[in-house]
Amino acid sequence: MTDLAPAQVVTWYRDSPGVCVVTLDRPPANALGVPILDGLHAAIDAAEQAGDVHVMVVKSALDGFFAAGADIKHMASIDAESFMAYGDKMRSVNDRLAGAPWISIAAVDGLALGGGLEFAMACTLRVSGSRGKFGLPEVKLGLIPGAGGTQRLPQLVGRGRALDIMLTARQVPAGEALAIGLVDRLTDGDVVKEALALAAELVASSRPAQLAVVRTVDAAFEMPLDEGIRFEALQEEGLFEEGEAAEGIRAFIAKRPPNFA
User: Fold this and answer.
1) Residue ranges covered by each domain of the chain
2) Is the peptide bond before 28 cis (omega within 30 degrees of 0)?
3) Which single residue of 148, 182, 184, 244 could bond 177 by disulfide (Cβ 3.0 to 4.6 Å)?
4) Which residues lie below 8 Å from residue 4, measured CB to CB, with a gap of 6+?
5) How many Cα atoms within 13 Å fall on the side-chain side of residue 108?
6) How far apart are CA 188 and CA 94, in angstroms?
7) What residues pair up with 112 in beta bridges, in sequence order?
8) Nearest of 173, 161, 166 to residue 137 by alpha carbon
């Protein structure tokens, strides 16, 4: 079967001011092959060029799948050098998303496995439907989660739980995923509708302040407490001098909604 072009497997549109929705559509399971990775790079490029994206929601067009992991057939057909290049491309997508100047939300209703879960973990937040299942089964292939999974999962759920999930290769159901912090919101209804409602809530606040929150929380995992507190103070000072704090304070005093960019 001829693979679909990147433009066909990843599409994006504006749902509302500041909100970009990216849709993965590579049947049968959104395997993260080169076309879908190139499409994700293109979506991120477009959002960066627009410059006004506040929240990016990533969803799937496929019933029962968010993304079922790396493209195993592709991996079986390449040599070691090409395998490393493929891994670099996956890591690059995740790192770009994690470092993007907007908040990202993965809307998961179905399987998010392997590279699919690694991609979801690179998002700022994860919203799951009741059918959501999450796992990193790479050990069954003689591999490890090599697109950030061994690093991001412990940050979300702690060392012991991360080891349990990765060493057993089990699938974590949505309720457990919420309880351990792997997902942030769980809905019995339409997961995309829930993610878009969260996006609308986020758009109302200051993007520079939100990004500073993400940076300082991430610093808590990377720095000793005293260094983290100093970093926090620098972020706060930057928001006051160059961010939107002045507008937020003026709006509070005037009892009006702030006019954030």
Assistant:
1) 6-203, 207-254
2) yes
3) 182
4) 26, 35
5) 37
6) 28
7) 67, 134
8) 166
**Contact of 15 with 57, CB cutoff 8 Å:** yes
**Which 8-state DSSP code applies to residue 170?**
P
Question: Which region holds residue 110: left if phi is over 0, alpha if psi is between -120 and 50, else beta?
Answer: left
Q: Please name the amino acid found at residue 258.
A: P
pLDDT value at position 86? 85
Q: What's residue 148's pLDDT?
A: 95
Q: What confidence tens digit (pLDDT) does each residue in 228-244 have?
A: 999 999 999 999 988 89
Q: How far apart are CA 135 and CA 174, in angstroms?
A: 11
Residues involved in catalysis? 70, 115, 118, 138
Please identify, in words, the CATH class of the domain defined by 207-254.
mainly alpha
Does the global pTM surpass 0.85? yes
Q: For all residues of the chain together, what is the average pLDDT?
A: 93
Burial 9-41 (b: 16+ CB within 10 A, else e): bbbbeebeebbbbbbbbbeebbbbbebbbbbbb
**Eight-class DSSP state of 140:** G
35-79 pLDDT, tens digit per residue, is: 999 999 999 999 999 999 999 999 999 999 999 887 777 777 778
Q: Which amino acid is at 209?
A: A
Residues 153-196 pLDDT 10s: 999 999 999 999 999 999 999 999 999 999 999 999 999 999 99
